[in-house]
Amino acid sequence: MVKQTVYLAVDFTINEGKRDAFEGIAQEMVTGSQKEPGTLGYEWFLSADRKRCRLLETYRDANAVLAHFNGPVVQQLVPKLLGTASVAGFEVYGDPGPKVREMLPGFGAEIFDFQHGLDR
């Protein structure tokens, strides 16, 4: 059986003086992502010094990832977020599908294909 769940881990470095703006946009992204079918998790974690942040995303399958990448969270809010922070790392775990796979190099993402594990 092939595991269909797709996970994204995105690390951000928050620009000096932009933390409040960053956090506001991040909250908008959570609200928008909660409305997307197939989004199973969309969680932000701040470092103790509040200068770095990790976003962990979980999607049911490649179709859900594609819907997210084509939706307003990525198309409208990510450009705003990048005005407040820079991407320090981006990893994808699982198969995001051929269309998203083509988009990911533009985001600087590295893909780790699923190999072994327990399916539930």
Give the CATH architecture: 2-Layer Sandwich
Distance between the termini: 10 Å
Q: What number is the mean pLDDT?
A: 93
Per DSSP, the total helix count is 4
Output the CATH topology: Alpha-Beta Plaits
What is the C-level CATH assignment?
Alpha Beta
Q: Domains counted in the coordinates: how many?
A: 1
Order of helices and strands: EHEEHHEHE
Point out poorly predicted stretches. Answer: none
Shape: globular
Describe the structure.
The chain is an alpha+beta fold and 120 residues long. It has one domain (6-112): Alpha-Beta Plaits (2-Layer Sandwich). It is built from four helices and five strands; from the N terminus they run βαββααβαβ. The protein has helices spanning 19-34, 62-70, 72-81, 98-103, and strands at 6-14, 39-46, 52-59, 85-93, 110-112. The chain has a five-stranded mixed β-sheet. Helix 1 packs antiparallel against helix 3. The chain is globular, with a radius of gyration of 14 Å.
